[in-house]
Amino acid sequence: MDWGMQNRLAGIIKPATGRCVMLAIDHGYFQGPTTGLERPGETVAPLLKYADALMLTRGVLRSQIDPGQRTPIVLRVSGGTSVLKDDLSDEEITVSMEDALRLNVAAVAVSVFVGSDHEKQTLGNLATLCDRGQKYGVPVLAVTAVGKSMTRDARYLGLACRIAAELGASVVKTYYCEGFEKVVAGCPVPVVIAGGKKIDERDALKLAYNAVSTGAVGVDMGRNIFQSKWPVAMIRAVRSIVHDGCSDEQAWEAFQRDAGKAVAGATA
Ligand code: R5P
């Protein structure tokens, strides 16, 4: 791997721990104004210092994020669909590599929909991006999107992650599932997990703990952070699991202390 690509990857997956807490706020690219992201710049401002990387689209980056901030950017570069359609898999590449470089990104991200009607097209998008990224030293994060008819089990996710890695992804983002260690074992590049729909904070911390303790290098978490009533406490707690080796129980205790202080501060 060349120096530029290694350097960009080291900005995302921290060499000190080999782990990563990525904050995902790219949901609007097909969902529109997702709850908590109506004003994304305001949402992420207090969170950025706890994020190893920020995953978002070009439009939100340009319009909402201070160019003076230093958190590495993972730019979503696939899209072209919306929640108004039943089939979300009909994606294309939405940003040129030249524009991604102009935006000084650390990586680009693309969804693959293995088993969908547009499997070949989305895998082609990934392969094309890997070629373009290779030319300039830009790593590609492949997101294993799961269609409604697919089951999020180790067999399916293991297949999707392995295909993404085989086509050249530097990092793969997928979902946690039972038997997750098999998904990781079959994937020759680092794996991070998405958080999924908002769940109770205690359960989201358990999810993060289970993922890293079965081989994920970290999380690329969105709604379970920015839709929490206590997003700063939540990202700090997730960070303690990913980087500091805390158990989910320890992280939950820290979360409650932080959230309690936030409540006390707000009512003082
Ligand atoms: C989905 O396609 C997007 O890439 C999101 O960034 C991803 O689902 C992670 O966010 P969440 O933790 O909210 O699932």
Q: What can be said about this structure in brief?
A:
With 268 residues, the chain is of the alpha/beta class. It has twelve helices and ten strands. Strands 1-2-3-6-7-8-9-10 form an eight-stranded parallel barrel, surrounded by six helices.
Describe the structure.
Helix 9 (201-213) packs parallel to helix 11 and helix 11 (231-244) packs antiparallel against helix 12 (248-267). Helix 6 links the parallel strand 6 and strand 7 (140-144). This protein has a single domain, classed as TIM Barrel (Alpha-Beta Barrel), CATH 3.20.20.70. It starts with a helix and ends with a helix. 45% of the residues lie in helices and 15% in strands. It has an eight-stranded parallel beta barrel with strand order 1-2-3-6-7-8-9-10, surrounded by six helices. Strands 4-5 form a two-stranded antiparallel ribbon. The chain has helices at 3-12, 28-31, 40-44, 58-64, 97-102, 119-136, 154-166, 180-185, 201-213, 223-226, 231-244, 248-267, and strands spanning 20-24, 53-57, 73-76, 78-79, 92-93, 107-112, 140-144, 171-174, 191-194, 218-221. The protein is globular and about 50 Å long. It has 268 residues and is an alpha/beta fold. The model has no long low-confidence stretch (mean pLDDT 96). Bound molecules: ribose-5-phosphate (R5P).
